[in-house]
Specification:
204 residues, mainly alpha, 11 helices
Length: 204
């Protein structure tokens, strides 16, 4: 069940840049290492509903219901567009600027969790990723999926913390350059817009 092949596959998936990585980088650059850890924690816990859905078979129902999939999908799209706005609005939650106020960690984590919760493709992703690594015993299938999912979550948190730490390390350099801040804010906004467009194009 917990094989080197699974660990390598999970590591490659976690390492690939996506919405959660982008959010953690933005938080690390804008608010520092502590906030980046909360961002990583939120993104990790946002996986839980999808893991439960895959383990309990609800992901298949989501995949089969075009209406339900569309509702969750466009809620996710709207949220990504809101994040894009927060990256360019003066005083926005994701905007990189020297005068930014420190946010409570729970709020940073909450936004990270919503990023993953509102992505319906994650449930289907787990439904496709985990079964090939199960032992094949029906009586232990759910427990095995939860175990593999927990390992995947631990890897997600660890990798995201590293991403956030690198971003936080570059924070002082970024804040010292108006041009760098302007360029990065626009880049993050554009990236969230593109991710929203990609999610909007997804089909169940």
């Amino acid at each position: 069940m917990l094989s080197a092949q699974f660990l390598l596959t999970a590591f490659v998936v976690v390492l690939a840049p996506g919405t959660g990585v982008l959010y953690t980088l933005a938080i690390g650059l804008g608010a520092g290492r502590r906030a980046a850890i909360f961002a990583a924690l939120g993104c990790t816990f946002g996986i839980v509903p999808h893991l439960l859905a895959a383990s309990l078979g609800l992901a298949a129902a989501l995949h089969a219901s075009a209406l339900l999939f569309t509702i969750v999908k466009f809620a996710g799209v709207a949220y990504l567009l809101w994040l894009a706005y927060q990256a360019i609005r003066a005083g926005g939650a994701l905007r990189i600027e020297p005068s930014r106020e420190r946010e409570p960690g729970w709020r940073v984590a909450q936004r990270g969790a919503l990023i993953n919760i509102l992505n319906p493709k994650l449930s289907i992703f787990f439904l496709a990723l985990l079964p090939p690594f199960l032992s094949g015993a029906p009586e232990t299938a759910t427990a095995e999926m939860m175990t593999l999912g927990a390992v995947f979550m631990a890897m997600t948190f660890a990798v995201f913390v590293v991403y956030g730490a690198f971003a936080a390390a570059a924070r002082d350099w970024v804040l010292a350059s108006e041009r760098a801040m302007r360029w990065l804010n626009r880049t993050f906004a554009a990236a969230f817009l593109l991710l929203g467009a990609r999610l909007a194009a997804e089909r169940a």
